[in-house]
Amino acid sequence: MKLRADQTGNRGLPMPLWLQGGLEAAxxxxxxxxxxxxxxxxxxxxxxxxxxxxxxxxxLGGQAWLxxxxxxxxxxxxNIGTAAQPGSGLLSLFPLGLTLIPFLLSWRAGRRLARASYxxxxxxxxxxxxxxxxxxxxxxxxxxxxxxxxxxxxFAMTIPLISFGLGMIVGARREAGSWSRLIGVDAVxxxxxxxxxxxxxxxxxxxxxxxxxxxxxxxVCLAALLLAVTIVWHWTDIIAVYEGxxxxxxxxxxxxxxxxxxxxxxxxxALSWSTGAGFSLGVGSTAGPLGTAVGPLPALPVLGALPxxxxxxxxxxxxxxxxxxxxxxxxxxxxxENHFDEWLxxxxxxxxxxxxxxxxxxxxxxxxxxxxxxxxxxWIARGSAGVGRLTEIGPHPLWxxxxxxxxxxxxxxxxxxxxxWLERSQKQREANLDExxxxxxxx
Length: 443
Fold this sequence. Notes:
Blueprint: E1 2-4, E2 11-14, H1 17-45, H2 54-68, E3 73-80, E4 85-91, H3 96-116, H4 122-143, E5 149-150, H5 153-158, H6 160-176, H7 179-183, H8 187-192, H9 196-233, H10 235-245, H11 248-261, H12 263-275, E6 280-281, E7 286-288, E8 291-293, H13 319-335, H14 339-347, H15 351-381, E9 393-394, H16 397-441
Antiparallel strand pairs: 1-2, 3-4, 3-5, 6-9, 7-8
Helix pairs in contact: 1-2, 1-3, 1-4, 1-11, 2-4, 3-6, 4-6, 9-12, 9-13, 9-15, 12-15, 13-16, 14-15, 15-16
């Protein structure tokens, strides 16, 4: 990208990388703001807001833009429900689905900046982008503060950089193709300087970390499937809530968009539910596979899919993280090398003992990795609605980590133990197919 010297199309001086990074950041900020404010404009145009002032609409759009970036909003006291219960607090339950909007825009910006930069110059483009995006967040927080909604300017300046910076790094890495081309560090050459024992230990730990990630992603996918089945099963209840709200076409569309924005949060809630840790929908409420006990809830259609009462077959959901652990154990058997088992076999000759200890240790290691990742997801997905008793929503990160680690660890032990049998069965099937194809060819 270069600055044009005139209108003839001739190119002049190259654009400085810091300026190009700033322009990319400004573009991502404006596009994400437009995407967020358009549904609000639709509700405003159909008389969906009591305050018809354009300034109030703009401030609401800015507050929504900060919320999808994870910036908490300080809500003033309001009256909630028929009991006129005063409630005030921090609105920190942000929609992970809508956070994908700035993430994808920054991912695109990161790719473009990596394409325009040399390895030792990329920091200039990133510096300009971060400065502009931080300034945009600070300005938005300053302008959109109201007596009803308070915004910490330090949070408004720094927190949006998390999703934006992550997208920039992922996009630049995708364009560069490797970390060595991106940051100028050759990992292969660095590893070649280490000892063989260090490489073996690093290979073992690296494979275990990847297996823990596999277990976590498999658990999330199974939880998403569980959530989809639950929504379909309670579809009539969800439609009944929609009909009771009478929000109209535009209001129903915006409500649906908001629920889709919180869909990743609900997947993490379902993951915690399937582990047995459960989750909260308000102070003093619990929802778990053995039963649900919650108080009055907001009239959100998606909450109609919440299982209620005692669940006879809810305990079967505990098998989902175990299945994810089995997949992770099998994956480690296929992709990793159990150097700890080899080292232990050299030290101790009793094979029955070394095999059992190394497998249990592998299950504990991969389960711990999955538990840490699951706890981090729970911490990101949970939050506060800022009003009344809805100040605790979502799973408890510690209990989520403990339950997920234990169940995944059990699954890893099973998967790693039965993996050789599965591999032999698969190879036998492949051999039979090859033999059948050979016979057909020479028939």
